[in-house]
């Protein structure tokens, strides 16, 4: 396989029809998510400072110019450099004093200078600001040895923002840089999407809470706290969390009740093919439609997506690492779509492998990887375990993200280019 060719292709290699049998490729599954899911209706207005993590439902326009007037970028002296005759040095008399917040209306004369401070308006009759370190002051006079250039140390009105121009677009997520831009634009309120209402259903007769005494054949519930964390924070209201038994009719009743309550139902477990896997039958029994059931990836093959009433449904596998991988790949993309965030998926980039990889062709494998600096050609190098284990989570905190081992690859030498998706919160 030629990795140079792989770079020019959009996906990770699992698009090849001969790979994965009847299973969908990762990118085809992402395509179905973006094809079906759109931003939920409903907005609210908030002060920008209270809207961190929220998604803009309307663009933000600059209400005024920024800066609103020409002002000094340094503490120093404002003067007219054009009026300086000959080669200097020049002696000027200080006739004004302007601090930030003070308006200066009197013009400054040709042989005069204004003492000025950073942020203060540039007085009429001046064309440059000389830093105080570059002027020798004696009493009310300054001596200049070097000719200043026109406009030096002046921040011009409107150089950052012009009134009426768009500063932020619909679909942008508000974080500190966007909130700073809103404040600079004079925007007192922003219109953002309402929080997404989400339900989390964790299936499994065997799972128990942390702290509970484990009976025979029982295990700790990893998926509830993990996905509670993934589904908390700005823009998402985790309206319902329930651990349900592996019973088809109980699940169906629960799904039916939630279908009109929330925008998104996330389930874990019970989504594979055994007769104890009741989630897909329960979704269809409840009148839901399944858009895909199974993707050619490892781990996370049984991941499924559909719609039930007005809610979307994302079925994650029960194995905790499979749930993490499928949440990172499909959950985040779905959440972004439903929240109206621009860009449906987390960006992938290319890295090089820090060791050879052996792989069984068939499914695209996602392996936790740690970024370990750059090679001699400036490419990021990823290190990883020798195999993927769908139930292991202990070492995950050491990983920065997931590398994509293409579905058709059987061997990749050290230094091969592969796709990498960083772990993301949202
Ligand atoms: N005959 C086949 N069997 C399986 C296939 C297959 O294609 N054919 N696929 C395998 C793959 S791949 C996966 S992944 C699993 C996923 O199955 P489910 O989504 O139905 O998950 P469960 O069977 O309910 O659980 C799998 C595993 O994870 C443990 N688990 C479940 N919930 C939790 C939790 N909240 N916290 C911690 N661990 C949890 C559970 O005990 C099982 O060990 O199916 C394969 N089988
Ligand atoms: O897809 Mo499963 O997650 O391979 O174990």
Nutshell version of this structure?
By secondary structure, the protein is α/β, with parallel strands linked by helices. Helix 2 packs parallel to helix 7 and helix 5 packs across helix 6.
Keywords:
binds ligand LQZAQKY5, 6-stranded mixed β-sheet, 426 residues, Molybdopterin biosynthesis moeA protein, domain 3, EC 2.10.1.1, Molybdopterin molybdenumtransferase, disordered N terminus, molybdopterin molybdotransferase activity, transferase, MoeA_C_domain_IV_sf, binds molybdate ion, alpha/beta
Verbal overview:
Helix content is 17%, strand content 30%. The chain is α/β, with parallel strands linked by helices and 426 residues long. Among the domains are: 23-42 and 195-329, MoaB/Mog-like domain (Molybdenum Cofactor Biosythetic Enzyme, Chain A, 3-Layer(aba) Sandwich), CATH 3.40.980.10; 43-66 and 162-192, Molybdopterin biosynthesis moea protein, domain 2 (Alpha-Beta Complex), CATH 3.90.105.10; 71-155, Beta Complex (Molybdopterin biosynthesis moeA protein, domain 3), CATH 2.170.190. Helix 5 packs across helix 6. The model is unreliable at 1-20 (pLDDT under 50). Pfam families: MoCF_biosynth, MoeA_C, MoeA_N. One of its GO terms (molecular function) is metal ion binding. It comes from Roseovarius azorensis.
């Amino acid at each position: 396989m030629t990795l140079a060719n792989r770079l020019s292709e959009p996906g990770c290699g699992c698009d090849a029809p001969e790979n994965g049998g009847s299973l969908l490729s990762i990118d085809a599954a992402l395509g179905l998510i973006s094809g079906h899911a759109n931003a939920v209706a409903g907005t609210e207005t908030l002060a920008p400072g209270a809207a961190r993590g929220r998604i803009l439902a309307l663009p933000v326009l600059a209400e005024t110019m920024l800066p609103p007037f020409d002002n000094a970028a340094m503490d120093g002296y404002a003067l007219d450099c054009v009026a300086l005759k000959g080669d200097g040095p020049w002696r000027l008399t200080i006739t004004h004093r302007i601090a930030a917040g003070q308006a200066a209306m009197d013009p400054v004369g040709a042989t005069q200078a204004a003492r000025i401070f950073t942020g203060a308006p540039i007085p009429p009759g001046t064309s440059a600001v000389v830093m105080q370190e570059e002027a020798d002051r004696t009493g009310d006079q300054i001596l200049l040895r070097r000719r200043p250039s026109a406009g030096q140390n002046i921040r011009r009105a409107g150089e950052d923002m012009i009134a009426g121009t768009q500063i932020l677009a619909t679909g942008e997520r508000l974080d500190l840089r966007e909130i700073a831009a809103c404040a600079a634009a004079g925007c007192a309120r922003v219109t953002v999407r309402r929080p997404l209402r989400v339900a989390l259903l964790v299936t499994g007769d065997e799972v128990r809470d942390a702290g509970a005494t484990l009976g025979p054949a029982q295990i700790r519930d990893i998926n509830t706290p993990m996905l509670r964390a993934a589904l908390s924070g700005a823009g998402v209201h985790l309206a319902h969390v329930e651990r349900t038994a592996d019973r088809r009719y109980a699940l169906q009743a629960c799904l039916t009740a939630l279908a009109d309550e929330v925008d998104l139902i996330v389930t874990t477990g019970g989504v594979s093919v055994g007769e104890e896997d009741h989630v897909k039958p329960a979704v269809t029994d409840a009148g839901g439609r399944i858009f895909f059931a199974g993707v050619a990836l490892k781990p996370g093959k049984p991941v499924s997506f559909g719609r039930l009433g007005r809610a979307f449904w994302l079925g994650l596998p029960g194995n905790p690492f499979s749930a993490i991988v499928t949440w990172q790949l499909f959950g985040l993309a779905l959440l972004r779509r439903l929240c109206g965030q621009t860009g449906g998926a987390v960006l992938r980039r290319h890295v090089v492998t820090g060791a050879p990889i052996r792989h069984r062709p068939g499914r695209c494998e996602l392996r936790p990887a740690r970024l370990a600096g750059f090679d001699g050609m400036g490419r990021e190098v990823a290190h990883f375990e020798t195999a993927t284990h769908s139930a292991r989570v202990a070492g995950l905190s050491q990983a920065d993200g997931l590398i994509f081992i293409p579905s058709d690859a059987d061997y990749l030498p050290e230094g091969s280019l592969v796709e990498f998706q960083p772990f993301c919160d949202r």
